[in-house]
User: What shape does this take?
Amino acid sequence: RPVVFSGMQPSSDSLHLGNYLGALVNWVALQDTVDPIYCVVDLHAITVAQDPAKLRESSRRTAAQYLAAGIDLERSTLFVQSQVPAHAELAWVLGTITGFGEAGRMTQFKDKSQRYGAESTTVGLFTYPVLMAADILLYETNLVPVGDDQRQHLELTRDLAGRFNSRYGETFVIPEAYIPEASARIYDLQDPSAKMSKSAASEAGLVKLLDDPKVTAKKIKSAVTDAEREIRYDRQAKPGISNLLDIYAAASGESIETIAARYEGRGYGDLKKELAELVVERLEPFRARTFELLDDPAELDRLLAIGADKASERAERVLAQVYERVGFLRRR
Ligand code: TYM
Assistant: This one.
């Protein structure tokens, strides 16, 4: 079975609809046919300042949302990145074969460093994609289900794996991105030229999974559209409507054509109202289950510790091979 690895940064209040449709739904669907490993990437989270107590809480919240979405521990390994030291260890080694210029070309780094300013742009933020490469390469991963925004990081991961292999001998499996079209990029409901993101200036266009259903419905019904009346898919001319159709398709499993045909001759109001109902209905059991899991943090921690043991065993094997290849003395 192909190995699948993916992760998300813990976020304090809730994951958003982009995380859910862009990644989590695919993680769940893949479970039947692959060997899945899913991670809460708290080492990545501290590349921006975090309140320690909140970070702990965010990691639990994020793990709870994976489980509530349908990640099943019988089939999947679920763990928190900082509990498996091999991630940081391999990242160091990979950093030594990453070009300074190469890392500097990462568009996410360029965007973030511009936004944060020179003072808050840390070396950790710069080497962030190298840590991500380590996450993936430690598990001999074949497929990485992510949203489109991670495509460049995946390319870097593949380059580093290939470079290490040619310098030190075949060690790493070269992974591939898994980015289904419809859900690859969910946009902000108020600004359909920007991807939905927790760092958006305003939360009006950000659908948070754990929000009150009334808030979610209102955000969807207030989504920005255009001055025409026709419901059809056209990314360039009709970004708002196209985004709603993408969300509809990803949330319902129907094709864009089927949905567009159903709304032919009907108004934007109908589409938004029914999409709001669909999303709220879909998220309802998810929310309830998340809060239920969060009621018992000790049990959640116990499940995560089991996941960390399973992940460590696999990661240590690959790391030992890397250390051997690089020429480190074996510890007796
Ligand atoms: P993160 O935490 O920003 O996002 C988690 C996942 O959600 C996807 N995503 C979206 N998909 C569609 N539309 C959107 N608007 C949208 N916003 C976010 C992301 O593509 C991602 O799949 N660096 C990664 C985390 C990471 C990782 C890894 C992923 C660390 N190590 C190893 C895969 C494998 C990140 O910050 O994702």
Notes: The chain is about 55% helix and 5% strand. The CA atoms of residues 4 and 36 lie 5 Å apart.
